[in-house]
Structure formats: C-alpha cells, structure tokens
Amino acid sequence: MTPRNVAVLGAGSWGTALADVLGRNGHRVRLWARNEAHARAIAETRTNERYLPGAALSDNIEPTADLPFALEDAEFVVSVCPSHAVREVLTLAAPHLGEPIVISASKGIEIGSDLRMSEVICEVLGEDVRPRTVALSGPSFAEELVSGLPTAVVAAGQNETSAATVQKLFQNGYFRVYTQPDITGVEVGGALKNVIALAAGVSDGLRLGANARAALITRGLAEIGRLATHLGALESTLAGLAGLGDLVLTCTGELSRNRSVGLKIGQGGDPDLVLGDMEQVVEGVGTARAAYELSQRLDVEMPITQSIYSILYEGIAPQEALTRLMARQPKPERWS
Questions:
Q1: Is residue 179 classed exposed, middle or buried when 0-12, 13-18 and 19+ CB atoms within 10 A define those classes?
Q2: How far apart are CA 256 and CA 249, in angstroms?
Q3: Taking the model in full, what pTM does it have?
Q4: Is the dihedral of CA 51, 142, 74, 180 positive or negative?
Q5: Angle subtended by helix axes 86-93 and 117-125, to nearest 10
Q6: Using one digit for the tens of pLDDT, what is the confidence trace for 259-283?
Q7: Which residues are known to be catalytic?
Q8: How confident is the model over 145-156, as pLDDT tens digits?
Q9: Rounded Cα gap, residues 292 and 24, in angstroms
Q10: Hey, how many other C-beta atoms are within 10 angstroms of the C-beta on 270?
Q11: Under a CB-based contact definition with an 8 Å cutoff, are residues 121 and 97 in contact?
C-alpha cells in the first residue's frame, strides 16, 4: 500500500498501539500527545514508558505535542482520546483539518449529550464528515497488539468505501480488520461492554463464582442489545467482534482496566479511592452514568448498568446492589 499521512490524536496505550500498527504498515504517523514532556520522552526513547513500558515503537512514528503540526497534510485522523475529551480535542483540531477520513477509536457515550463518539465528531466537524467517519472497535488489548499478537477488530461506517479504506490502512499479518455498516451497534457495544466489565469485576471481587460471571456477561449482552436496537442498531452486530467479542475479553481479561476497578470495589475498595489510584482513564465509569441516564430517558431496562451506576454514584454497597439485582421480578429470558 502507498504510504499515507496519518495523525493519531491521543498517546495513551491504545493510541500508541494503533500508531505502531500504522507505522509498521509503512505509513507516516504523527502521534499527538497533550503533554509536551510525554511527546518528547516517546521521541527520545522510542517507547511509551508511561503506558506501554518496554515496547519498541516503529521508526515511522513522529511524536508531537503540536496539534496543527500533527494534522498537517493528514489524510486520516485517528481519534483515540478519552471519550470525555473528544469534543474538546476535535474542536481544537477543526481549523487545521482538510478532508481526511476520521477514524474513531474512542469508546464511550458523552455525558450530558448522550451522543456516541461518531455523533460527537459529526456535531463538531459538521455533517459533511459523516461519510468519512469510521468507528474502529473490537476485542483488543493494547499491550497484546503492540507485541504483535493476533488481533481482530471491526471498521464500521455508513459509507462502504470509507470503511474499506480504513480496513486496508490497518490490515496486516497480525491485525485483521473486518468491515460492516452498522456503526451504531459497533459503538454502543464498544462503549457498554466497559460497564458490564465493571460488574464482572465486582462479581469476582465478591467471590460470586464462574456461574455469576457467565450470567453477567450473557445478561449484559442482552441489555446492551436492548439499548442498541432501540437506537437503530442491528441485533446481529452485538453477536460479533464489537459486541460479544469485546464483552468477553473485557469481562475476563487480566489486562482489563474496567474489570480491575470492579474487582477492587468488590473486594471492599472505596470507588473514589480506587479510581484515584488509576494511571489511565477507566471509560466504564463515565459510560455507566451516561448509559444510565440514556436508558432512563428512553425507558430501556438496563438493570446491570443501573446497579453499577448505584455503586459508583449513589454509594450503594456492592452486596446490596447484588441483592436488588437478584430480587427483580421474574420474567422471560427475552423481552422487548
């Protein structure tokens, strides 16, 4: 493939791992970090010791804290900022953009607006960008990807050509990219799996066993599906990589930050103190609030999400939240 100019906005673990894939594919990558010292350290050591210690990065990556420089001549812009920062960063980026394909690799729902990340992108950059907006999501730990371990994800966009172009940009021998048009389902699945992973961690912290974890994953998928289809997604999308695949990984993987936080809370940790000790953003915390508020507004029943919201924002003890969850009115496995 002809080398392309790519700007990656966000030098956390996932942004760095994606930049490394693109660099190893031969593309010219500018990796933007908000902090100048962080960008300089990556440039000097050729590693991101803060988030991916010891992983040697592609020589095709040029770290920078200069946003206009990062975006200069960019044919692709990969947004990998924490979901709460996407609006701010893209607002700053907007004056420096041409007409790139915008790839959203952030997972979350914006608090207050209830918008998915691609919707935030279109609101900030204008409706003209919608055909050039693609969501990249799926079961993927940055630590494994940067080590070259096999990973498969989905590039979803309403425009088939844009999704296929992103697929070609990232695809290589260890990073397999599938395409599909259901960007709503892909984004909802990618955001809400973090909330269910918090619940799975709480369950494990309470030592509730493998039966409970399996039930949480399965019923979590059901409530993700209820919200996603209410928003216009295809139910089949949630059975794929960006739904079930990402959910299983995040609920069971030792590298999952959301599961780790839930585990510590289930073991008796104060949520505020647990989160204060985290080096990176735990997306499920903000998404739990946004998803709960959205479900209330749309009248979509999401009991696991509500339980996590109660633990994080209402001070309910994990055991009490479990009691309320199990005491709900019996019903069929599937209902609309």
A1: middle
A2: 8
A3: 0.95
A4: negative
A5: 30
A6: 999 999 999 999 989 988 887 888 8
A7: 193
A8: 999 999 999 999
A9: 40
A10: 11
A11: no
Which long-range CB contacts under 8 A does 34-43 form with residues at least 24 apart?
Answer: 34/65, 35/65, 36/65, 38/11, 38/65, 39/11, 39/63, 39/64, 39/65, 40/65, 42/11, 42/16
| β-pairing verdict for 151-156 and 28-32 | unpaired
Looking up tokens 């069971």, which residue turns up? 252
Q: Token pair 């059901």 is at which residue?
A: 222
Residues in a beta bridge with 178 = 154
pLDDT along the chain (336 residues), means of 10: 94 97 98 97 97 97 98 98 96 97 97 96 97 98 98 97 98 98 98 96 96 95 96 96 97 95 95 86 92 96 96 95 89 79
Q: Closest by alpha carbon to 138, among 51, 247, 236?
A: 247
284, two tokens: 């499920």
- Sign for the CA dihedral angle at 260, 20, 287, 153 comes to negative
In total, the chain counts a number of residues equal to 336
Check if the beta carbon of residue 153 is closer than 8 Å to that of residue 181: no
Domains belonging to the chain, first-starting first, are 5-136 (3.40.50.720), 184-326 (1.10.1040.10)
Which secondary-structure segment (H or E) carries 285? helix 283-298
Integer Cα distance of 63 and 74 in angstroms: 14
